[in-house]
Amino acid sequence: MHIELNKDVLYIIDTLKRHGHRADAVGGCVRDFLMGKPPFDIDITTSASPDEMKRIFADERTVETGIKHGTLTVVLHGTPYEVTTYRVDGEYADHRHPDEVIFTETLSEDLARRDFTVNAMCYSPDHGLTDLYGGREDLERGIIRAVGEAAKRFTEDALRILRGLRFSSTLGFEIEEKTAAAMRGCAHLLSFVSAERVLVEWRKLLGGKDARRILTQFSEVLAVAIPALSEIPVEDLPPLDDLNAEERMLLLFALLPKEVAAVRFEECALALRSDKASIRRGTEILSHLHDADLGTDESLSYLLHDLGEGGARAALSIRVRLRLCAPSRLVALEKWIEKRPCTALSDLAVDGKALAALGYRGRAIGDALQELLFAVMSGKVENRPDALLSYLGAVK
Ligand code: ATP
Ligand code: MG
């Protein structure tokens, strides 16, 4: 069993070893390496205490924000590596954060605190793969299984429920029976998970290849974190392939009655503290969903004007999935975008300065530009400076 670790990770492991400690790459990165995928980040677990790590890496660029929990971030060639002392988590009073962390010298205790068997393996060149919970077998068979007693682990930290659903969705793994039952039994504890953490897991879950399966099988569990799901008829969800996470979220809300779809989406996105731009875009897309036909290039221009390229694609993809318009309209949109139609003020062949030179002032400049834009979009005038200016002269 050999994993090709990069030079910086090997340097960290080696440096700790030279100081008499053991260090291994651990968790998600080992899972991803074994699946032949590049890991999202690389974490290292070590027998060195936080103070020892600080001394050992005193000459490197480090970040100490996690040091109370035993984590020193070592930055090598611009990449941060989280190096964490073996630890066990103390009591969990709030179903999310341990009241205290206890450092230990035993690797097996550190692996036991990890959430799922596929995330509880570690690897170093000296010791090879350490797999105390059958993680490799579960990885090969495609199973998400809690380490230890599932209900106890989800009661300690309810975020693990969402993480488990997320991994099942992104990796396409089945959730082992007892683990799944505990997720349902502990679902009410999801109300203890912060909006920020819910949003991160929810987006990853939605983007996963098996998102539809998780959404339909675990909608009541997810509804504790995303209350709108209890109203959405998820069983009506069409296939999600080729849609990104944002489009999938909007498609879910598009299953609601059209009068409430945009409002419910906005409430949900605000509660999850989504960024303002995606809330605005999503609300606009959902309010436009049942608009009149998009059969003409002119109507596509208006869609691009209102929603931008990404938004227009999302709106049409969702309409196609809901059979509100023909798939050929998506092809038409792409062809139309290639022609670089004029759909924004910045696409116009004249700008405010040109109008100021003609004597326009203040708000009249903006109004005239807007009028020109709509005239171009509806085919009344060509987007050339001379044509635009003479059009303005004629309508004035
Ligand atoms: P990703 O691919 O998103 O990075 P990951 O499994 O690596 O997934 P991280 O947040 O990077 O997730 O955490 C690294 C490791 O720390 C996990 O693989 C797991 O072993 C452990 N871990 C993370 N969060 C928890 C948790 N809430 N409870 C128990 N163990 C956890
Ligand atoms: Mg990770």
> How many domains, as an integer?
4
What proportion of the residues form beta strands (DSSP E)?
A: 5-15%
CATH class of the largest domain: Alpha Beta
CATH topology of the largest domain: Beta Polymerase, domain 2
Structural class: alpha+beta
- What letter string, H or E per element, gives the SSE order? HEHEHEEEEEHEEHEHHEHHHHHHHHHHHH
Give a structural overview.
With 396 residues, this protein is of the alpha+beta class. The protein has 4 domains: 1-141, 2-Layer Sandwich (Beta Polymerase, domain 2), CATH 3.30.460; 145-225, Orthogonal Bundle (Hydrophobic Seed Protein), CATH 1.10.110; 237-341; 345-395. Helix content is 51%, strand content 10%. The protein has 19 helices and 11 strands. The chain has helices at 7-18, 28-34, 50-56, 107-112, 135-141, 150-156, 159-171, 177-185, 195-207, 211-217, 219-225, 245-254, 258-271, 276-288, 297-321, 328-338, 352-357, 363-377, 385-395, and strands spanning 23-26, 43-46, 61-63, 71-76, 79-85, 87-89, 101-103, 122-124, 128-130, 143-144, 174-175. A 7-stranded mixed sheet has the order 3-4-5-2-1-8-9. The protein has a two-stranded antiparallel sheet with strand order 6-7. Strands 10-11 form a two-stranded parallel sheet. The longest helix is centred in the last third of the chain and has 25 residues, at 297-321. Bound molecules: adenosine-5'-triphosphate and magnesium ion (MG). The site of adenosine-5'-triphosphate has 12 residues, from helix 7.
